[in-house]
């Protein structure tokens, strides 16, 4: 029986995924790296240092920098990102999402956040959504990033639920892979071609209706 919902943040609750990608692209440009468009889907959902590793791989520079140099690059990206998210407010919630959270609350579903971002709690405050969530996984406590299932398993544990009692929402291929590896029902938000591993797909959040998602969960 369905008892809880687990949400990624960037690209699911708000459009901050775009800000992450912009900041990574700005960092890459400053390093003389020309990132192909295909890099975007690989960067989505990856932890800060894993994202930087993806960029270095595209640039053919893996292993060329010290840990301290990589950390300085990650800090530079994070500073640009934090600047960008400062302007977020309650209007920055993606269309349909606040309604979905409200419907879930009415249905007495418990809710958790499974974002790899250390900035996610600040964003939830900006959006005035913190009160909807019973648990927020602290990514600093994790050993592995998405696509490893750890973050979704942790969220489920914090809610005190089993894998078949939750529905999890993602916009990233790595995130959908993490949900499926955790044995949970995955809702993919975005291009169905890149999120083909999800159990239920919508092109964007305007198509998200809780009753429809629950119906698909019950059919599965
Ligand atoms: C999320 C985003 C990624 C980002 C990661 C770490 O998963 O989708 O693009 O790299 O969080 O975010 P942070 O804010 O901690 O650098
Ligand atoms: Mg995301």
Describe this structure as you would to a colleague.
It contains 9 helices and 6 strands, in the order βαααααβαβαβαββα. The chain has 220 residues and is of the alpha/beta class. It folds into 2 domains: 4-15 and 89-219, Rossmann fold, CATH 3.40.50; 17-85, Putative phosphatase, domain 2 (DNA polymerase, domain 1). α6 (120-127) links the parallel β2 and β3. α1 crosses α4. Magnesium ion is lined by residues 8, 10-12, 17, 44-45, 171-172, 175. Pfam families: Hydrolase (PF00702). Keywords: Magnesium, Metal-binding. Belongs to the HAD-like hydrolase superfamily. CbbY/CbbZ/Gph/YieH family.
Essential attributes:
45% helix; 220 residues; binds 6-O-phosphono-alpha-D-glucopyranose; DNA polymerase, domain 1; Rossmann fold; 2 domains; alpha/beta; 6 strands
What overall geometry do the principal axes of the alpha carbons give?
globular
User: What is the correct CATH architecture of the largest domain?
Assistant: 3-Layer(aba) Sandwich
Q: How far from one another are the termini? A: 12 Å
Number of helices: 9
Low-confidence stretches: none
Rg, alpha carbons: 17 Å
Top CATH class of the largest domain: Alpha Beta
Strand arrangement in the largest pleated sheet: 3-2-1-4-5-6
**Sheet of most strands:** 6 strands, parallel
- Total DSSP E strands: 6
Sheet/helix structural class = alpha/beta
Indicate the percent of residues in helices: 40-55%
Domains (count): 2
Mean pLDDT value = 97
| CATH homologous superfamily grouping of the largest domain | HAD superfamily/HAD-like
Query: Could you say what the CATH topology of the largest domain is called?
Result: Rossmann fold
As a percent range, the share of strand residues is 5-15%
Q: Could you spell the SSE succession in H and E letters?
A: EHHHHHEHEHEHEEH
